[in-house]
Write a structure and sequence with these properties.
Distance between the termini: 24 Å
Helix content: 40-55%
Oligomer: single chain
Largest sheet: 7 strands, mixed
Length: 244
């Protein structure tokens, strides 16, 4: 069995590596974030690959040059514990099922996940599994199939008979399982559009008064701007989950 550790954090790194080795052996493959590579080298672990943004692509290329085998993908930013890894080990069984760890989403997150998954289904003809990308077991056969397309496809919803989903009770671990999208520079585009539309609307009121057509155009532009904002947020969240 191979463990791919995506090093996106160096907090308690030695402790996490020891836990992974104690549970799954020493066949670890380190894919390190570029800005952490100089510090990571001081730990003495071998670097298999370095990524800048698209971790999924680099992990894909790294696995593509290695022998295919059962694989665990784990992110160092996850708050690992022996209890969590014991749960994974206990569910491995014959190793024929994908094992996902499903965060407990709050009410607001569940409400947002509905339109988000509608967006994903519209674009990619498949739903996001909403499982955490930070810890997952992939059987060798699944790894082989994914390497023929893209490793990021591991996050799409699959036939339930091939997947075992685990819910995590611990609050700290549950929080670290979730993906928190970072600010995207393109998110300012809808803000610029809204401010421009508002300025033009105020100018139209000053020159032509509150005409029906002016108000109608402004309302339509605002609605389209809100939709654009939502789409940007969904895309940002998708990219963070699947690619980064």
């Amino acid at each position: 069995m191979r463990v791919v550790l995506v090093v996106d954090s160096i907090e308690n790194l030695n402790e996490k590596v020891n836990m992974l080795e104690n549970h799954f052996g020493t066949n670890l493959c380190f894919v390190v974030k570029a800005n952490l590579a100089p510090i990571f080298k001081t730990y003495g672990y071998p670097i298999s690959a370095v990524y800048a943004e698209k971790a999924a692509r680099i992990v894909h290329l790294t696995l593509a040059r290695l022998d295919v085998e059962d694989t665990i993908i784990c992110y160092a930013s996850l708050q690992l514990s022996n209890r969590l890894l014991d749960g994974l080990t206990a569910r491995l069984g014959d190793g024929n099922k994908i094992i996902n760890f499903m965060p407990r989403y709050n009410y607001f997150e569940r409400m947002c996940n509905v339109p988000y998954n509608a967006y994903v289904k519209t674009i990619f003809k498949a739903k996001d599994s909403l499982a955490s990308p930070k810890l997952q077991f992939l059987p060798a056969g699944c790894v082989e199939e994914l390497l023929q397309s893209h490793l990021a496809n591991r996050m799409f919803e699959m036939n339930p008979k091939f997947v075992y989903s685990v819910e995590v009770e611990d609050k700290a671990t549950n929080a670290s399982l979730k993906v928190r999208p970072k600010f995207n520079k393109y998110a300012i585009i809808p803000i610029i559009v809204l401010l421009t539309a508002l300025a033009l609307f105020i100018m139209s009121l000053a020159f032509w008064g509150a005409r029906y057509l002016n108000i109608f155009i402004f309302v339509v532009v605002c609605i389209l701007d809100v939709l654009l904002t939502i789409i940007f947020q969904f895309k940002n969240y998708f990219d963070e989950r699947f690619l980064k």
